[in-house]
């Protein structure tokens, strides 16, 4: 299922009407099955009327053959279900998060006039709302008829409507993040909620780590080495994340790979591969943690943004040289935040980005960067942004269904998304094919005689 790309126009009501017509057709097929079963009793009269044998044989084929009426009804219902999924997804895309600063008046009263006990009560109600949504979302995700990504999206959007004012000072238009005052008036509810949780998560991390948290950032690289089988497809680029994750587990630091491809004519192309979240608590040696996730979701800077930009600079990427990015989960948040930054774009020419399992709907992507987002409908992570990706010409979203239950965590794994990316070339969609062509040109690995070298950067606090 594809949204965005070239000339996309969808009428969700029309999709709903077509789905209803398919269901009526399925009912007609079922009625025909029942009538055919009734007529099949003619088989008892074949000994008396031999000419009825041909009719009975034909009825048997209609009821039990490979192209039987029951199979037709099941197929029509499956098509109707697929169409309903697409209608639901497009409606989610239309229900974009509204940027507006309209705190409830009672929140002002609690913040400015409320006694400590009342503030404590409000905090307790907010915590109960979080637990309620978590429980309801978990229960709904067990329903095989619902899309786990959409369930997470609906609950994230609804919960953010309340939790965006959880930090009392946010109703005054901003709040302190450390020593920095952050203006929240132009943020979405999800961004305001994530921002309010940054401090709480950092305090919890400080406790979990026994007060031993790290500051500062170091970016170090290994000596580059030739790649015998360089990635030539988006799936192969994502497939390199597995080796990076093994290195992260062994070394305890973050890791980013930068591939340099040099053509026989001397032109250089670059591919940047960034994995997803590796640590739960903030303040550890590895900055690929949930602190980075919250900061990226809130639209404020993180250590990983600094680290990835530094790795690209240390790799020697020159201004104007084409860069492709293949990123997973948190890596997608970081990459989207970077390409949305005009200062970063002035230094690097990123022409294509492949995000896999990344909730980036709240980030305003520039039209100069082609982004393709792979999202598994059974992956709740892609719904944490509380909105569907805008179907823009420069941002194509491909929704896939792995068939794996969300509770197993399988739909979010990079290997699953790499397998899905390998199928992109088979999609008959102008937007997808245009993105593939630009990504191929940026990577440069399909140029005959090109040489690719790998540089792995360790990012640590």
UniProtKB/TrEMBL annotation:
This is Alpha/beta hydrolase. InterPro entries: AB_hydrolase_fold (IPR029058). SUPFAM superfamilies: alpha/beta-Hydrolases.
């Amino acid at each position: 299922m594809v949204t965005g790309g070239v000339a996309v126009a969808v009428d969700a009501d029309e999709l709903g009407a077509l789905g209803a017509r398919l269901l009526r057709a399925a009912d007609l097929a079922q009625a025909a099955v029942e009538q055919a079963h009734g007529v099949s009793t003619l088989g008892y009269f074949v000994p008396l009327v031999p000419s009825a044998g041909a009719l009975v044989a034909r009825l048997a084929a209609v009821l039990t053959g490979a192209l039987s009426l029951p199979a037709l009804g099941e197929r029509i219902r499956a098509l109707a279900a697929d169409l309903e999924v697409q209608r639901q997804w497009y409606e989610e895309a239309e229900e974009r998060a509204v940027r507006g600063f309209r705190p409830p008046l009672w929140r002002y009263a609690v913040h400015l006039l409320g006694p400590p006990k009342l503030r404590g009560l409000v905090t307790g109600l907010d915590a109960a709302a979080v637990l309620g949504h978590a429980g309801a979302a978990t229960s709904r995700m067990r329903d095989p008829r619902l899309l786990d990504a959409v369930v997470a999206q609906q609950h994230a959007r609804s919960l953010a409507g309340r939790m965006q004012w959880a930090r009392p000072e946010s109703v005054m238009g901003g709040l302190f993040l450390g020593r920095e005052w952050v203006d929240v008036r132009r943020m979405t509810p999800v961004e305001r909620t994530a921002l309010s949780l940054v401090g709480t998560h950092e305090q919890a991390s400080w406790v979990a780590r026994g007060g031993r948290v790290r500051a500062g950032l170091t970016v170090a690289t290994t000596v580059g080495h030739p790649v015998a089988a360089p990635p030539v497809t988006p799936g192969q680029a994502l497939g390199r994340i597995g080796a990076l994750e093994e290195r992260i587990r062994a070394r305890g630091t973050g890791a980013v790979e930068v591939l340099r491809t040099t053509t026989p004519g001397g032109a250089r192309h670059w591919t940047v591969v960034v994995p997803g979240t590796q640590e739960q608590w903030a303040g550890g040696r590895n900055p690929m943690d949930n602190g980075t996730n919250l900061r990226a979701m809130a639209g404020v800077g993180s250590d990983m943004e600094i680290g990835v930009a530094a790795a690209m600079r240390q790799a020697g990427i020159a201004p104007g040289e084409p860069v492709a990015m293949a990123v997973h989960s948190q890596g997608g948040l970081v990459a989207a935040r970077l390409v949305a930054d005009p200062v970063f774009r002035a230094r690097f020419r990123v022409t294509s980005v492949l995000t896999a399992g990344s909730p980036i709907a709240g980030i305003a992507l520039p039209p100069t960067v082609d982004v393709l987002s792979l999202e598994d409908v059974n992956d709740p992570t892609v719904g944490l942004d509380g909105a569907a990706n805008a179907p823009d010409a420069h941002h194509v979203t491909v929704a896939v269904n792995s068939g794996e239950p969300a509770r197993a965590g399988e739909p979010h794994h990079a290997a699953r998304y790499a397998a899905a990316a390998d199928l992109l070339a088979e999609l008959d969609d102008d937007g997808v094919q245009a993105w593939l062509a630009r990504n191929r040109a940026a990577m440069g690995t399909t140029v005959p005689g090109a040489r690719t070298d790998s540089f792995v950067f360790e990012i640590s606090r």
